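We emphasize that the prediction below concerns an isolated chain of 175 residues; any contacts that depend on oligomerization or on bound cofactors are therefore not represented. The input was used exactly as deposited, without trimming of termini.
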Amino acid sequence: MDRTTPDGEFVQRLIAVQDRLYAYIFSLAGDTNAADDVLQQSNIVLWEKADQFRPGTDFGAWACSVAHYEVLAWRKKRGRDRLLFDDRALGQLAGEVESFSAQANDLRLALRHCVELMPPRQRKLLDMRYVPGMTVGKIAQQLARSAASISQTLYRIRAALADCVERSLAKEGPA
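Result of the prediction step, given as a token string:
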């Protein structure tokens, strides 16, 4: 693919994978400042190598692979530090983290899908519960219901979401 700048689809994929990439990098670097720097550098490299991505393959895995090399470069610049893993251990850890990162992303997408399928009243109650500072008691007051009733309804909503997520992931098969 001969292009001077990445296309819109590439940009969308890059944006969508930022959380996964950051989690991957942070798990290998173990430092938020380093993870921020390595993520920024990884994004630059991904942008420069956009023409090397092959549509139909796993963008997240490709991006994590690029990020892995950027973590190695960061480690090399940092020099010898007794607290860092050796390259072999880092490679093993990277494989585990990448797998976990992909699974976490699949879970997040399945949860988002399941929340979208919820009836509006249930979704509103769930949204209310996760507003910072909002308690079951405050929700009960606003809705003129008992706190026990709200707690039971939230329990049922969470159980239904868990079942939906499990079914969604089972349909998709292993990542």
